[in-house]
# Entry
Amino acid sequence: MERIEINVRRLMGKPVIKGTRIPVSLIIELVANGLKPSEIIREYPELTLEDIKAALLYASRLVEREVLLALE
# Structure
């Protein structure tokens, strides 16, 4: 994932869009709240459509690898 970076000196090691201080979690939250990619880019012009797609893919891969346990 070349568009996502993790640096312990930036936002306490949270994944961000490379070259920015915009965390992946913010992009996921904006999409979850119904913002379209064009609206996100309007608010954060340093982002590209590819950055938004990379954030979504990153989150998808995290969930895919997560181990789920049944609560009984």
